[in-house]
């Protein structure tokens, strides 16, 4: 990249058909790459969309910066090295010649940058007293796009809402007079000593929530004694995220299996070298891209403005809100036989994330997995899928042996320390919390620490008031729970083969 590129030359390549962009002091030709650039807002997806209008969306993400400086937006979503790794030498056009910039050019760059968090009206951290407050703070000051991305879920948000409200249908049966002056929440999850059985869910592009991104999640988890499960779709490199915590501090790694299996094999080879990573969470609930309407609406606006400014609107009759089809990255052919393939490429415990039925929990156990996460992707996968706490109850009733043979984790709508206690009493080994932690990145590492501290404090309080002194000892002890209200939502016993079997055994 020895050649120097002037502002004048850069601005000559300012269309979708001839698209040069300045990123971190270097000029790149993204013409060929732009149509392939993922346009899906769920970082979880890493998807290259295939429908024509979806391609248009993808294109718009990049072409918006044609002939301009895309550094600010690029750095919000990506690690510095990604672009050099992804493009060919011919596409690296040269160093940008800063001496050629003009006031007008610099002003134009301001418009192109994606607005980030505005500091107006940001509540002080001291005003945050529960996990919902983090989401509300973010809704107030986070950018519109980031807000749609983080809070969004599929279609009518049925599963998103059920995840949260169903925790409230499970009631406690407290015990009293038990000397709860001191309580212990310490336990082990997947071989890691933790202060409480909580992990931070894998969530893509954490830099959308704040500049420290995944580093805040890693550092905050480490200083709070919990574990951060990093996403395949993180906005920072694995090494950068690991560097946020002390050298021996544990992390989990979440994997999407790529259609191009050799790419997944390369990721696994890299992860195998990193002794800080203690478990591999394979996400299996998102075989195809779901529809996230909040995000699609924002993208529609973006596309409209990009193409109307070029007087060349190409939005088809169906608009940009077409149901998205997969085309890229995540392999929809992933199936249970692939566990043995993954096993050949990793030495880590394998945890299947996205279990939504007792039958699949049993299957994971029979396949020799070390753990499962009952999850529906926080309502971002199949809308209408059951609330996760209901699935935990179903597994508990139908195949309790699962809890003996592997670790059972759960996420989705967990917002209170008392939810953690409920999950543990039903038998869970660990509980994942997603959006509130992502939103806490708005306040950097301190925000993440505060979120963990709130959960820890609420958990200890719930334990004391319920008469539980040792969380580990209470695992699976359903005498602390009244499940009656929840049970009416379980599938009928005749539709639950394992349940019938259990009855016969009793
Ligand atoms: C050539 C290198 C690049 C690669 C391999 C790449 C890859 C990706 C991937 C995989 C995603 C999906 C996000 C995720 O799920 O984590 C994404 C999102 C995104 N990328 Fe890139 N990208 C590149 C360059 C750029 C550039 C140059 C820009 C802008 C100047 C950009 C802006 C964005 C934005 C804004 C998103 C979020 C998508 C959305 O709007 O929802 N990327 N990119
Ligand atoms: C912004 C966002 C990004 C996510 N990205 C991923 C991901 O990359 N991989 C994954 O397995 N799950 C991903 N998820 C799902 C979470 O890991 C988790 O299952 C879910 O958020 C839990 O629900 P909660 O947010 O209600 O706590 C994402 C969720 C959100 C909100």
From TrEMBL:
Return the Pfam families for the record: Cyt-b5, FMN_dh
Q: Which UniProt keywords apply?
A: Oxidoreductase
Oxidoreductase as a keyword of this entry, yes or no, is: yes
Which residue range or ranges hold the Cytochrome b5 heme-binding domain?
2-97
Cofactor(s) recorded in Swiss-Prot or TrEMBL: FMN
**Locate the FMN hydroxy acid dehydrogenase domain: which residues?**
123-484
Q: Does the keyword Metal-binding apply?
A: no
One GO molecular-function annotation for this sequence?
oxidoreductase activity
List, alphabetically, the PANTHER family matched.
CYTOCHROME B2, MITOCHONDRIAL-RELATED (PTHR10578:SF104), S -2-HYDROXY-ACID OXIDASE-RELATED (PTHR10578)
State the protein's name. Answer: Cytochrome b2, mitochondrial
């Amino acid at each position: 990249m020895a050649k120097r590129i002037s502002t004048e030359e850069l601005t000559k390549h300012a269309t979708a058909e001839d698209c040069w962009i300045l990123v971190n002091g270097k000029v790149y030709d993204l013409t060929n790459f732009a149509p392939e650039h993922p346009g899906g807002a769920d970082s979880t997806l890493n998807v290259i969309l295939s429908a024509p209008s979806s391609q248009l969306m993808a294109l718009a993400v990049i072409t918006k910066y044609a002939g301009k400086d895309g550094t600010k937006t690029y750095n919000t979503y990506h690690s510095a090295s990604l672009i050099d790794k992804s493009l060919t030498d011919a596409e690296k056009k040269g160093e940008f010649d800063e001496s050629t910039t003009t006031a007008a050019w610099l002003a134009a760059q301001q418009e192109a940058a994606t607005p980030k968090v505005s500091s107006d009206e940001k509540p002080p951290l001291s005003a945050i007293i529960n996990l919902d407050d983090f989401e509300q703070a973010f809704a107030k000051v986070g950018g519109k796009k980031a807000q749609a991305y983080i809070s969004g879920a599929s279609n009518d948000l049925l599963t998103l809402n059920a995840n949260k409200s169903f925790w409230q249908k499970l009631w406690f049966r407290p015990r009293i007079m038990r000397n709860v002056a001191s309580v212990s929440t310490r336990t082990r999850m997947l071989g890691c000593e933790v202060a409480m059985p909580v992990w931070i869910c894998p969530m893509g592009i954490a830099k959308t929530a704040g500049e420290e991104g995944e580093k805040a999640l890693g550092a905050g988890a480490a200083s709070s004694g919990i574990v951060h499960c990093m996403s395949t779709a993180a906005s920072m490199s694995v090494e950068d995220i690991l560097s946020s915590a002390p050298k021996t501090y544990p992390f989990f790694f979440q994997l999407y299996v790529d259609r191009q299996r050799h790419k997944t094999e390369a990721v696994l080879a890299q992860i195998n070298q990193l002794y800080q990573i203690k478990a591999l969470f394979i996400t299996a609930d998102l075989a195809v891209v779901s529809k996230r309407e909040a995000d699609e609406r924002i993208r529609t606006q973006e596309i409209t403005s990009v193409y109307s400014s070029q007087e060349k609107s190409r939005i088809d009759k169906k608009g940009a809100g077409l149901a998205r089809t997969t085309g890229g990255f995540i392999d929809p052919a992933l199936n249970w036989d692939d566990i043995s393939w993954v096993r050949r490429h990793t030495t880590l415990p394998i945890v299947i994330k996205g279990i939504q039925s007792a039958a699949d929990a049993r299957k994971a156990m029979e396949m020799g997995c070390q753990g499962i996460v009952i999850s529906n992707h926080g309502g971002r996968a199949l809308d209408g899928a059951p609330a996760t706490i209901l699935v935990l109850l179903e597994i508990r009733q139908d195949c309790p042996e699962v809890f003996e043979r592997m670790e059972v984790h759960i996420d989705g709508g967990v917002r209170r320390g008392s939810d953690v206690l409920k999950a543990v009493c039903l038998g869970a080994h660990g509980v994942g919390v997603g959006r509130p932690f992502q939103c806490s990145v708005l306040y950097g590492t301190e925000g993440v620490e505060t979120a963990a501290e709130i959960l820890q404090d609420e958990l200890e309080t719930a334990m004391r008031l319920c008469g539980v002194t040792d969380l580990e000892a209470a695992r699976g002890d359903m005498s602390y729970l009244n499940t009656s209200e929840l049970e009416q939502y379980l599938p009928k016993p005749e539709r639950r083969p394992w349940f019938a079997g259990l009855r016969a055994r009793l």
